[in-house]
């Protein structure tokens, strides 16, 4: 009887112990499964919403690279805990604006820089006056024709002569100055200045001055620099170049362009080797006569196409009530 009692007691205790172990095992299993739901790479990070603290405004986005979500760093005991580390958004620090040079404001500095160069004069404000200008000077026959026609009409012209032609036709240029025309710088060799370095471009201009001084005298060059310091850039190359305009301005020159010309409007549309000079010259006459207005700076060249009908061109200009003058008489500087 006693043995039976002890047997039942032991049996009951064993059942109790076994039930307790199962409860603990189930509890731990459920706890592990719950923790795994948080730390799983497939569910953490990418599913997190962007919070107010880490959202980046459009303005801030332009300042620094944003970090949209927190960076996750798993603990050594993976699956039991998660450590969240926020990466702070970089703070943009503006660079201080540079101080104005020499105590002037940026606007004053810009104005000063702009004043260091002279932009090309292409026309002027006047209802009745115009300027006739002639370029190059290599064609002796054309030069003689121009001097003859201008003298007939008592008209004064402005000549932009290439330096290498100054000595070639020295007597004609001396005659031109004696008759009241002015001769201005068109560089020594008619090279586009934009293709040259600053030193090479300066040499083109100063060599012209040296040749002109030999032909017309240094006194003429000094007067030119004072009273009519005009230069025409070969081919107009440099009229839009701040580098070249600054260079010629520093040398004391005023660049002169044009608003009416014959080459691009007429000559380049013809075969000058085969077509009749008379027909092309007639077209030049019609073009200039029709387009000229008060304030025009007319560009012609010492060639047969521009000079053959010069007499008629001047007559047509007069018929429009316009008078022809030197550039120095029409431009204020």
Automatic annotation (TrEMBL):
Protein's recorded name: Chitin deacetylase
Every NodB homology domain range: 128-325
Domain of life: Bacteria
SUPFAM superfamilies, sorted: Glycoside hydrolase/deacetylase (SSF88713)
Taxonomic source organism: Thermoclostridium stercorarium subsp. leptospartum DSM 9219
CDD domains per UniProt: CE4_NodB_like_6s_7s
GO BP terms: carbohydrate metabolic process
PANTHER family: GLYCOSYL TRANSFERASE-RELATED
Composition bias type Polar residues, residue spans: 37-59
Region (Disordered): 31-73, 89-113
Molecular-function GO terms, alphabetical: hydrolase activity, acting on carbon-nitrogen (but not peptide) bonds
């Amino acid at each position: 009887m006693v043995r039976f009692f002890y047997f039942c007691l032991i049996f009951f205790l064993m059942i109790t112990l076994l039930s307790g172990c199962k409860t603990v095992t189930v509890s731990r299993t459920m706890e592990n499964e719950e923790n795994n739901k948080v730390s799983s790479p497939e569910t953490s990070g990418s599913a997190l919403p962007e919070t107010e603290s880490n959202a980046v405004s459009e303005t801030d986005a332009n300042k620094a690279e944003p970090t949209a979500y927190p960076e996750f760093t798993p603990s050594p005991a993976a699956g039991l805990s998660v450590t969240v580390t926020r990466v702070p958004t970089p703070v943009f620090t503006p660079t201080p604006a540079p101080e104005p040079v020499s105590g002037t404001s940026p606007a004053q500095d810009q104005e000063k820089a702009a004043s260091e160069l002279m932009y090309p004069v292409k026309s002027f404000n006047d209802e009745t006056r115009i300027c006739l200008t002639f370029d190059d000077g290599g064609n002796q026959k054309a030069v003689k024709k121009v001097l003859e026609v201008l003298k007939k009409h008592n008209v004064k012209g402005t000549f932009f002569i290439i330096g290498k032609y100054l000595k070639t036709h020295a007597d004609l240029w001396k005659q031109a100055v004696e008759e009241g025309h002015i001769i201005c710088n068109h560089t020594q060799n008619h090279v586009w200045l934009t293709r040259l370095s600053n030193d090479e471009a300066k040499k083109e201009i100063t060599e012209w001055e040296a040749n002109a001084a030999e032909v017309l005298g240094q006194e003429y060059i000094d007067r030119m620099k004072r009273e009519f310091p005009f230069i025409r850039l070969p081919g107009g190359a440099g009229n839009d170049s701040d580098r070249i305009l600054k260079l010629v301005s520093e040398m004391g020159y005023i660049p002169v362009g044009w608003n009416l010309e014959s080459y691009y409007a007429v000559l380049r549309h013809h075969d000058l080797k085969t077509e009749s000079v008379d027909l092309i010259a007639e077209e030049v006459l019609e073009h200039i006569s029709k387009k000229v207005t008060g304030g025009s700076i007319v560009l012609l060249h010492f060639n047969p196409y521009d000079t053959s009908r010069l007499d008629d061109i001047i007559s047509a200009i007069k018929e429009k009530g316009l008078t022809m003058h030197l550039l120095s008489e029409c431009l204020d500087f």
